Amino acid sequence: MKKLYLISLLAIFINAGIAQTETNGSSNKKIALSEFVGTWSGEVIQADADSYSIKVHITDPINDESVGENIAMAEYPELGCNASWNLVEIKDDKIVLREKLDTRNDCVDNGIVYIIFHPDYVEYQWAYPNGKFVCSARLNKE
Questions:
Q1: Residue among 55, 47, 16, 10 nearest 134 (CA)
Q2: CA-closest candidate to residue 122, choices 54, 25, 66, 69
Q3: How far apart are CA 51 and CA 113, in angstroms?
Q4: In CATH, what number is assigned to the domain containing residue 123?
Q5: Cβ(89)–Cβ(75) under 8 Å?
Q6: Is the pTM of this model over 0.90?
Q7: Cα separation of 35 and 43, whole Å?
Q8: 96 and 111 in contact (C-beta within 8 Å)?
């Protein structure tokens, strides 16, 4: 399972590099972050736990005026946790958010969420407050 997690993380970082190239490459193609408002879902892969589903509702447009604001909500049905996501930073095709739990159960509060935007899907990455990466998922729009 740990090997699968490491392979998944490697694939995410490779994909992030490819997306960065597409965004800042010679074509200067820029992904319009406003297109990503809506509901996204997928399966989270975590090295030290069973996989579980996530549903993300991006409710507000993503722009510089949104920094510090709650722009999304996340549901982790199997874990019994719900969270609000506050926008921390926008970096080209990636945003950084702070996760604040609405319901706790066994979930960790104040996690760091990275969303990497691709034309047809988004990559979700979650890290502890200290920055240690824990899990990832490919999210598709519903």
A1: 47
A2: 54
A3: 17
A4: 2.40.128
A5: no
A6: no
A7: 22
A8: no
